[in-house]
Amino acid sequence: MRRTIQELTEQSSLLHPDQTQRKILQAGVGNYAEAFLTALDTAPAYVGDHAGVALQESPITEHGDELETVLELIGAEIDTPGVNCASGRHFGFIPPGGLYHSALGDFLAAVTNRYSGVSFASPGAARLERYLVEWIARLISYPQSAGGDLTSGGSIANLIGIVAAREAFELKAADLPNMVVYLSGQAHHSVAKALGILGLKECVHRHVPVDERFRLDADALERAVAEDRDAGLRPWLIVATAGSTDVGAVDPLACIADIAERHGMWLHVDAAYGGFFVLCEDGRKILLGMNRSDSIVLDPHKSLFLPFGSGAAIVKDKSLLLKAYHYEAPYLQDAQEAGVEPSPADVSPELTRPFRGLRLWLPLKLLGLAPFRAALQEKLLLARYFHAELDKLPGFAVGPAPDLSVVAFRYVPERGDADEFNRRLVQEILKEGRIFLSTTRLNGAFVLRLAILACRTHLDAVDLALDVLRRKAEQLTRQ
Ligand SMILES: *Cc1c(COP(=O)(O)O)cnc(C)c1O
User: What stretch of H or E contains 46?
Assistant: First the structure.
């Protein structure tokens, strides 16, 4: 038996490379990352005619492949096709960031593999996450009573916020048909998804109209709440958006908070995209009233430029989270007896999870806040600049100036179907691939949207976008 074990040990020791092998691996991966980053300035923002199929033709084998071969496969089949999320010419959806310092934080977190779910296991990792939650809470002027969790993203964070709203009202299944949820058409679909997951579909859903800038109409909300009360229903939850995905609209948060207070309702603010604009001067003014919500969602992987995998749910009364998520189990008795402070697992649906704190803390700690404030103010100004410049180009119809950093627009051709023209316009732009942008529908019309949030997006990229739009629209008009 000992001999067999030793033979197995020899083979399995390949799972932890020695120092020499580690250096080779690190150099290979490091060189790949360097080549990727130095090519970014000229790399396409979008490659559409490539599906990464060769990946499937390269099976996982019994004894593995060479690093070089595998890196080539990653380069050709993963990092080439589709949207280049590291590009500063990515203007689609909500553009991602990808701070290098965060990548290094992830690397360290994975190498040391601290267990951030439970304070007993890693008091430092759990404390760092708690500190970051408190830091975000202070940033948005939430009180000391607030608590929350670093999540994988905004969708899970919305789920956590709505769970808190449910706990606060101690909803039972029998209550649901009487409870009313108020949302505008600009609310992110993850809110409806969360309500569905939570079994709250049977609540009454009121779709509150928006004004001409796509902000929730507070007067219409007030009227709807009053009508529902009169009808014997129970107004429960308002979901407001601070930076809608479509157009970056910020709902009138202070007016909505007044209504929530007046009627004893829960206000959840989805600031997944817009929340961290609070770091810059103009953003702070636009987001006024955000702190009067009961729960809020912010995505560091959006307006703090982190790589994907970072959201945050903050709830004003953290005891509601403990109520929902604190459980005990015999195999966790050592942790419970140690009596340390509440763990991330006590305020979240997750137990084992990646140590998400380091990827957020490392860039903030190393760089300080100043470059983040500057970058966010820069993005707001770039969006206003794009809006003003596009307005000067013949044929383009732009709406009102953006609340944050998304501009919706369309080309209005002299002849033919405008929706069809704009669909072809975006197809031509993506075929060229120098910039990436996405489309949506507003009041039934097909529109393009330029979203500015990538940390590598600066004036040159926005000028290029203007140039591409002008050129492609001219070409299509001539056809
Ligand atoms: C992106 C976004 C979400 C969803 O967040 P994920 O991080 O993609 O899960 C929710 N709400 C708004 C307003 C968003 O922009």
Answer: strand 46-47
- Which ligand 1 atom lies nearest to the CA of residue 158? 10
Q: Is the CB of 273 under 6 A from ligand 1?
A: yes
User: CB of 82 within 8 A of CB of 334?
Assistant: no
Residue 379 tokens, joined:
């993005």
Ligand 1 pocket mutation pick from 302, 306, 403 by most atoms within 8 angstroms of CB: 302
- State if residue 245 touches ligand 1 by the CB under 6 angstroms criterion: yes
Query: In angstroms, rounded to a whole number, what is the distance separating the alpha carbons of residues 409 and 380?
Result: 17
What is the pTM for the complete model shown? 0.97
DSSP 3-state of 83:
strand
456 lines ligand 1 (CB under 6 A): no
Ligand 1 nearest-atom number relative to CA 299: 7
User: What is the Å distance from ligand 1's center to 28 Cα?
Assistant: 34
User: Beta strands 406-411 and 445-451: pairing type?
Assistant: antiparallel
pLDDT given at position 369: 98
Q: Whose CA is nearest to atom 12 of ligand 1?
A: 272
Cβ proximity of 155 and 190 under 8 Å: yes
pLDDT in tens, 390-416: 999 999 999 899 999 999 999 999 999
Q: At what angle do helices 100-112 and 357-367 cross, to 10 degrees?
A: 130
User: How far separated are the first and last CA of the chain, in Å rounded?
Assistant: 78
Q: Whose CA is nearest to atom 6 of ligand 1?
A: 154
- How far is Cα 133 from Cα 146, in angstroms, rounded to an integer? 9
Mean pLDDT (the chain) is: 97
- What confidence score (pLDDT) does residue 334 get? 83
**Cα separations (Å) of 235 from 143, 180, 261, 266?**
25, 5, 12, 9
